[in-house]
User: What shape does this take?
Amino acid sequence: MRVTLQEELDSLQASLSEETELVLRALRGSINALRENDPELADEVIAFDDEVDALYLAIEQGIESLLARQTPVAVDLRFVLAVLHSNLHLERMADLCVTIAKLTKLAHGLPPDEMLVEGFDEMASRAEEMIRVALDSFVERDVQGAESLVDLDELIDRTNRRVVKHVLELGGDPERREWGLRMIVISRCLERVGDHAVDIGEQTAYLVTGEFREFTDASHPDRVDT
Amino acid sequence: MRGGRRDVRGAIFRLALLASLGIAFVTLGALLVDVASKGFEFLDPFFFTHPPSTDPHQAGARPAILATLYLGVLLLLFTVPVGVGTAIYLEEYADKNRWYNRLLEVNIQNLAAVPSIVYGILGLAFIVRGLGLGRVVLAGALILTLLVLPTVIIAAREAIRAVPDSIRQAAFALGATRWQVISRQVLPAAIPGIATGSILALSRGIGETAPLIMIGALTYIAFDPTLLGPFSALPVQIYNWTSQPQEDFLKLAATGIIVLLGMLLTLNALAIWLRNRYQRQW
Amino acid sequence: MSAPPIRIEGVATERPEPGTKDVVFDINDLTVSYDGQPAIRGARFEVYRNFVTAIIGPSGCGKSTFIRCLNRMNDLIRGASVEGTILYHGQDLYGRDVDPVEVRKRIGMVFQKPNPFPKSIYDNAAFGPRVLGMTDDLDGRVERALQQAALWDEVKDRLKRSALSLSGGQQQRLCIARCLAVEPDVILMDEPASALDPIATTRIEDLMHELKRDYTIVIVTHNMQQAARVADMTAFFSVDKLEDGARTGVLVEYDATPKIFTQPSDKRTEDYVTGRFG
Assistant: This one.
């Protein structure tokens, strides 16, 4: 029953998954560019954002058309709204990867700190994991999986705090300091990617329960903002 | 809510209705009882197998019964095709805005109300004399046809009209021609109504006396009738017997009435059964 | 490099470019009058093959009048006159030597209130083939038609029973099967679900989605949400007042359905679909 509606909903889901794959590629690309200090790779990452934007727009238009024509209600409506929000979060994640790439280019030629760069690798891996968990939970409608994102996010937050501390200890010459500042911003970007993944998790919970609530209220009443 | 004024007027009205109903039934009942008691004596197979005679105890109504049967069959044969055909023309083909069609409509209604003796006069002038048929069964059948034709047309029209237009639309939309729509959808659906109407018209026709008297069915016929020979139908035979002085002939007349009533009641019952069994609820 | 846009499976997202899609009906300057009063005036657009095209609009805008022109059912109404041209696969539908019976064989119609014949289910489906002389393999034709109308499984064991014993939704699917049995090219539907309950309605809508693979469908509906759900292209007719105060129907806008319901070009269309009409 309502074959067309179901086909369109499935199509949206597939597109969201596709967009997630693109975001993961952008993230991997931007971290590789950082680690290898490769401005050309960074340029590629920046150009790649066009693909993500195109898919983002297509999903937006698809949602507009579906809402106008199929007037979904109940779980179908919540699904469409959840896709709408998640779409935005994925697009923001891709933009953050662009920022990381731009900062990598700006930091090119400045003296790097190997330990810090390794730290970023770890943060990026964590972020990648969070993105996969977020999407899988969404597809499986798994609220507990979505809620587990909070703990994963906490790890990124901690790493972020360590990075800040480390940069503060760098001291020394202006070039070092400049590099350090750029790194702080990159760290912030990765931390923001994690936050967006949690937001997608919240959409999963909304989709399943019909209630919108922020996860962080549940387990972390005091969050320390860096 | 309790008690309150009684509806006096309503009660009186209902009483009046019941009273009139009662009078009608009682009168009818009395007539039937009278006829049955008088006619019972001569009601036996002899009545059906023997011709009339001057001796009441030797008299039967065989030629009259046969004539009535012939008239009935001929009536059906003539009225149904013509009546149904006219009804189909008027309902399915005729443009109602044309003057001649409107004229036709009005006339059919009028003709249904004309007294039967007028048909008798008409028949005498145009069919017996004009066509030169003479005072024969065929002529009688033709006159009775004219008499009941308007009724059949009206009944057929009602039956055809009762078929919803949506059926016709659906049939047309499938690529049927007008004739296919009529023959395969409208007519089959209208047949119960047409049959009922025809049988009722038939029962009216065979009960008519006046036109048959006009064309001379009042003769004393002692032989079996043929299509083109002289005849006397059952209603006329009854009338004949009632004008005889002997008491026994009155009894014979009553017997004839019982037979005629039996025929009419059977036909009407058949019509009602047909209607109840096959009439479609649209 | 940009990713391809999302294709919504099975729904047209844009009006086809001229020449890219087969045109089944090419309607030009169509004016239909009853006894001199125009019911629709100056309609012009194209109906594309294997699309569901919906006609929407307020009552009195001539939707039913329009669709009845496409299979020449208006011929049956005294006083109806048709001006302008309707080309069916390039041929003038109202040409001098065109036989309406042939037209109706190719262009079938399903009506608002289910109107099965008072005969058996089998005889209903077989009526069309019988009157058109397509009597070879009648059983096969009946079965295929009932299959395509998604009714076969429900009635295959009681084909000889009266069609009137079916539910409303089943009767309407039987009417669709009846129409399909003559193997038409186009199926016209005049408010096919307005007499049905929501579940039966959804089944009919899903059926349209199936059928449009093999047929071209034109549907008239007063329920614009239905048009939004099923149609590839939507035509919006509205009511115009003439100089003498008479009302006539005119085509206001014709475009791909997503466009009509997200960004209509004409304000009248927008007023209608948003429910702010009048």
